[in-house]
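A protein record pairs a chain with a discrete description of its three-dimensional fold. The following entry can be read in just this way.
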Amino acid sequence: MNVEPNKVEQFVKDWAIDAAIFKKQPGFISAQLHKGIGKSSVFIMYELWESIEQYKNAVKTLIFSSETQSPLMKYDDNSLVISAHAFKKIAVPGICLD
């Protein structure tokens, strides 16, 4: 996620609201937010879910429910650019496990 520098503080607050909503969803295991060092305003969010299906359901809930709508979906001024990707852990022999 790329955030305009003057919106970083608000973004972190909004992300915390998102994460609290996600924590209540079935299949959620954990989440971690990482920020580039120094004056960087680039963030990476890393989440673990029991299944991709549970993640997709949680995203639908977070985006489309009026009661739990993500505050991150309200950034309509291009001050937040989200590039979401789903990854699967893989094994590399002698380096890391699957």
Observations:
- Residues 2-81 form a domain with the Alpha-Beta Plaits fold (CATH 3.30.70.100).
- The mean pLDDT is 87.
